[in-house]
Amino acid sequence: AQSVAQPEDQVNVAEGNPLTVKCTYSVSGNPYLFWYVQYPNRGLQFLLKYITGDNLVKGSYGFEAEFNKSQTSFHLKKPSALVSDSALYFCAVSPNSGNTPLVFGKGTRLSVIA
Amino acid sequence: GAGVSQTPSNKVTEKGKYVELRCDPISGHTALYWYRQSLGQGPEFLIYFQGTGAADDSGLPNDRFFAVRPEGSVSTLKIQRTERGDSAMYLCASSYGLAGVSDTQYFGPGTRLTVL
After folding, report:
1. Who's near A10: CB < 8 A, 6+ residues apart?
2. Of the N and C termini of chain B, which has fewer Cβ atoms inside 10 Å?
3. Do B83 and B63 meet the contact criterion of CB atoms below 8 Å apart?
């Protein structure tokens, strides 16, 4: 069975500094990996995904993520954090086997301090 | 273009009552998913439709939960004899449903269900 771990409940970073939100996964076969962001009382907003190819994936709002197969990780990064990036971030995985439900991590709350 | 919409945005009900939650997917999306998100947790899968049929309902917690998608578009999640433990945010997502490809799921704003 597939699973996702987000080891940090909370990440605090100063505005303008780089940010990293960590994610590791476990899945049979090759994974499809996703990052979503959730603002208060809102649904999930898609940021980026890894399917195949280049290990560095670029997404919305300046976010990027690096797929590392040997470490089974897919960490979310941004070179320069904004206060408006403060939100709840979810990593998700689905097996490379067609349309299947996503398995989500428990989320990491990012707080960017001015 | 219109995204996934869900109604109502909030639903407060009493224990033992019946509720229906509605999801209107993005036009042209054949796949539709329901997830449930409890406070402080990530979304958990409930049921997945491909067209009109439920392709996977393994996430439904018990037989009080049921969902339909009779015309392959709008879906309704139905909960009978609600319990306080059913209180959560119910999220709907849709995707193109392309065969052999895990395409992106786009989420609606959710329905927050509170069972008193």
Report:
1. A108, A109, A110, A111
2. N
3. no
| Amino acid (1-letter code) at residue B34 | W
Q: What is the DSSP letter of B85?
A: G
Q: Indicate the SS3 state at residue A75.
A: strand
Query: For residue B6, what is the enclosing H or E element?
Result: strand B5-7
Distance from C-alpha of A16 to C-alpha of A85, rounded to nearest angstrom: 11
Measure the CA–CA gap between A9 and A35, rounded to whole angstroms.
16
Identify from B90, B102, B104, B112 which residue to disrupt to test chain A contact, counting A C-beta atoms within 10 A and taking the largest count. B102
| Rg (chain B; Cα; Å) | 13
Q: Residue B59: closest CA among chain A residues belongs to which residue?
A: A101
Q: For residue B86, give the 3-state DSSP assignment.
A: helix
Q: How near does any CA of chain A get to the CA of B43, in Å?
A: 6
C-alpha dihedral, B89 to B95 to B99 to B103, nearest 10°: -90
Whether the CB-CB separation of B94 and B42 falls below 8 Å is answered with: no
Residues B70-108: tens digit of each pLDDT: 999 999 999 999 999 999 999 999 998 776 666 899 999
Q: Give the pLDDT of residue A23.
A: 98
**Residue A87 Cα, gap to closest chain B Cα (Å):** 13
Distance CA B116, CA B112 (A): 13
Q: What is the H or E stretch that residue A21 is in?
A: strand A19-21
DSSP state, residue A41: T
